[in-house]
Amino acid sequence: xxxxxxxxxxxxxxxxxxxxxxxxxxxxxxxxxxxxxxxxxxxxxxxxxxxxxxxxxxxxxxxxxxxxxxxxxxxxxxxxxxxxxxxxxxxxxxxxxxxxxxxxxxxxxxxxxxxxxxxxxxxxxxxxxxxxxxxxxxxxxxxxxxxxxxxxxxxxxxxxxxxxxxxxxxxxxxxxxxxxxxxxxxxxxxxxxxxxxxxxxxxxxxxxxxxxxxxxxxxxxxxxxxxxxxxxxxxxxxxxxxxxxxxxxxxxxxxxxxxxxxxxxxxxxxxxxxxxxxxxxxxxxxxxxxxxxxxxxxxxxxxxxxxxxxxxxxxxxxxxxxxxxxxxxxxxxxxxxxxxxxxxxxxxxxxxxxxxxxxxxxxxxxxxxxxxxxxxxxxxxxxxxxxxxxxxxxxxxxxxxxxxxxxxxxxxxxxxxxxxxxxxxxxxxxxxxxxxxxxxxxxxxxxxxxxxxxxxxxxxxxxxxxxxxxxxxxxxxxxxxxxxxxxxxxxxxxxxxxxxxxxxxxxxxxxxxxxxxxxxxxxxxxxxxxxxxxxxxxxxxxxxxxxxxxxxxxxxxxxxxxxxxxxxxxxxxxxxxxxxxxxxxxxxxxxxxxxxxxxxxxxxxxxxxxxxxxxxxxx
Length: 619
Description:
Helices cover 31% and strands 18% of the residues. It has 20 helices and 19 strands. It has a 7-stranded mixed β-sheet. Helix 18 (565-578) packs across helix 19.
């Protein structure tokens, strides 16, 4: 029987392996009655894994012998320390300090949200620190059904964290969890919780303080070299006078400075952030997406302790980097290890801490970086060219008018229409919002039912929807037309160009568009649209520079006569069809007494003979 007494311990030791956390208190014995009076391991685990107590049917008698008892007979009561205070489930620490702390934290978050007047949500990506920021955000945006802009992207332990403001976006992000697979075939887990406003929003600089910071930065900006020195900016006299120097070391101020740089000087090539007591580079990572031309970055005399902080700047193609007098410089065994570590993150680095580096050893084949010259419009034949250009002139004449009802005859009875646009960046205007609400971008919209609702059917519905879009003014001379398919019964062509909203507001943003028409022959010499897809985006700086530029007047010693509205329309149409600029189109029409047909014939003959100079085609 003494062997039987030790049987539970023998079986239990055999059942659990050494690394099982269930046996961590196996040797601990609490004071109780009898040899087995105290619990020697977690009673809850015993009930889960063992079922009924293995020795419940054995009881000690006075002589130490063991007698059999009824299995259903209640066993003797056990010693339970701290009775009535430990509870399982959500109420296990009811009324404790933990609940009071979490409640106060929740109240604080709600209070912060009420102060800002916005509902904020905190998005956490489990183990997101190991992922590249650009890859992670792009992957989430592709899977998310709604566009969003991440605010204050940073890391908390191993998690990548950012904030969003819209509750609909928060719900959409919840659906993204476990839909993204990384390169190691692991599912990316995303958690979304309601939160107070992020620090950068809650503790934003006041408008008058922000203006002082902008003026201070403007004095330190070198426009000729596209460089900005923010070295020890907290001691700047302007900031000291406004008492901004005391708060400038806070994280939200650095975030505000980086935001100003991204918004106002995106072409910056050199930035000096030395002597600013930077411990982390979370906010500086916005440079990755806002300043692509940055070549020189100075981070000397800061408080950077770990080289992993530089991982947040991996996307920058730096030529020169300064890190001297940071604590991380002392963590390397020698200078060679230091250079090797930094160069792993910035392979094309040429100078480190002011010292020239040996050229990097790489096996990349040098490729030509000069892009080919953009070609003009492409038409299969001259007949198709005349047909398409005449159609576009008529179409956009009605489209840019106050009433687009005249386009009713241009669409087939069973035509389809859709709009696609890209989410505008956070620092852009809201000009694209009217198109963003009807965005049918198949990379963003995953719901089949929503895709169907965003597709406009029947020409009456299409015209009604077009009348709801903002009134526009298109730059006809910016049009580039490409005919992709041409048969006897079908014609498909794409139009790329520039337009702006036609209203009384100042500084209307210039936007770019790409429109795909699929049309069938209609009548003797016309087209009827069966499918129309409009894609709208923000215009590039080069497109904005060239947009709506009035043509230079024809060189002449005599005064230039005033052109009538009809003559101006003829010049635009002739320039669009011939490819010549306005100056030479006007000259050709004027030399032929404004006879459009005769001018077109003369142009065709001279072009075939190669007698028209290249400058006539320069826009």
